[in-house]
Amino acid sequence: MNILQEKAGSWGAEIPAGLTATEGRLYTLRDNANPDIFRQLVVEFRQWMKDEGFDNKPLIISEYGVLMPSDYLADDIPSGDQMVIDFMRASFDFLVNAKDPTLGYPADANRLVQQWLWYSLNDQPFDPATGRGSNGALFSHLDPRQITKFGVAFRDCVCVLLATPTPGPTKTSTPTPTATPLHCPEPANNAREGACGPIMPNVTYRSYISSTNDPRDWFYFDMATWHTIEAWLTNIAQGCDYDLYLRDANGNHIITSPNPGNADEHILWGPVAAGRYYLVVVSINHTWSASVPYALRASFGQAALPTSTPTLGPTVWGPHKLYLPVIVKRHCSQGHECWQASDTATRVHSRTRTPVPLATRTPVVPTDSRAPVPLA
Ligand SMILES: [Ca+2]
Ligand SMILES: [Ca+2]
Q1: Which residues pair with 155 in a beta bridge?
Q2: How many angstroms separate the alpha carbon of residue 260 from the centre of ligand 2?
Q3: Distance 244 CA to ligand 2 centre (A)
Q4: Which domains does the chain show, CATH number per domain?
């Protein structure tokens, strides 16, 4: 599903074979990432299903996303990138929540859509020379270990879905990590052996570098699965300079965010294997503040739990085949609903058909004569 104009001899979706019309809906390039049109098209398709007697069937959007390059969507690339992210978030929110008692699928609480897949995992960016490619790839086309800003947005959307399953008649037995006050005595936390923790993902912790005798604060977290690690150190007091280090389970240095002055620090690393990691807030030039607490937050998907838990991770890749990421809502054994991020499309379709590797798939792209026209 892509929002493209229908016009004979031009870029976009062209006109279906057999029709004599030369024009249908004439969407603009920027409409390609318009969530209002996306919502309208889903509703219209559900209406068509009802009219044709398919209203008691699930609706699966087997592929959708944003084809147009970001500088076709907006005046500059960062603004266009943000449109793609906004489109992703708005469409996910709609797809999760949209219900209609007259159009929806009765077996799914009248939701309009039952499953959907975002395109792409790591297709190449649009290449004007060949007319191939797509926007919104979750990982780098050249290096699939590198998550993109779209991948980070996708991950965060999926993590929210996983953190808030639809309430059912009984509670699930899956333990949920909770943020508890950290035990962080000084001066023990100046060394790895006295690190504060475990910190939980996406929880902001506030603490102090509180004297000239306080050189650093160690924190640790236990990550459940392969995942990207992202961390932010903010609210550094005026006149202070703190840096942020990421270290591995043995305390070996991985990466530093060394911005000058009291500028915020930010680390983005991975994906890397599950295990214990350390974040270290380091005072530069013996600067400190006992009155302004710094704020530390880390995002790493899921904290390790004492019992085994389902694997979390929106995407995986193998050496030979790439599959589209998918979010699927399934019905749990006790009759209540759960949201789950599948690591590959294989799980979804394994009982019905073999997924097609991307390498053999034909991208939906304009041909040369229909290529999008760059904005003046
Ligand atoms: Ca300390
Ligand atoms: Ca700094």
Answers
A1: none
A2: 5
A3: 7
A4: 30-172+311-370 (no CATH), 188-299 (2.60.120.380)
**C-alpha–C-alpha distance, residues 22 and 16, integer Å:** 10
Q: Give the pLDDT confidence of 299-346 residue by residue, as tens digits.
A: 998 888 654 333 333 333 333 333 344 444 444 444 444 444 443 333
Calpha distance 227→163 (Å, rounded): 16
| Residues contacting residue 207 through CB under 8 Å, at least 6 positions apart | 184, 196, 217, 281, 293, 294, 296
pTM: 0.49
Ligand 2 center from residue 323 Cα (angstroms): 40
Question: What's the chain's length in residues?
Answer: 376
Q: How far is the CA of 294 from the centre of ligand 2 (A)?
A: 12
Distance 259 CA to ligand 1 centre (A): 20
DSSP string, 17-33: TT---SB-----SGGGG
- Alpha carbon of 192 to ligand 1 centroid (Å): 11
In this predicted model, what pLDDT tens digit does every residue of 176-201 receive, in sequence order? 444 455 667 889 999 999 999 899 89
Ligand that comes closest to the CA of residue 260: 2
CA of 189 to the centre of ligand 2 (A): 19
Residue 274 alpha carbon to ligand 2 centre in Å: 28
Contacts of 70 (CB under 8 A, 6+ apart): 77, 78, 79, 80, 81, 83, 84, 135
Stretch among 6-20, 35-49, 170-184, 358-372 having the lowest mean pLDDT = 358-372
Distance from residue 186's CA to the centre of ligand 1 (Å): 6
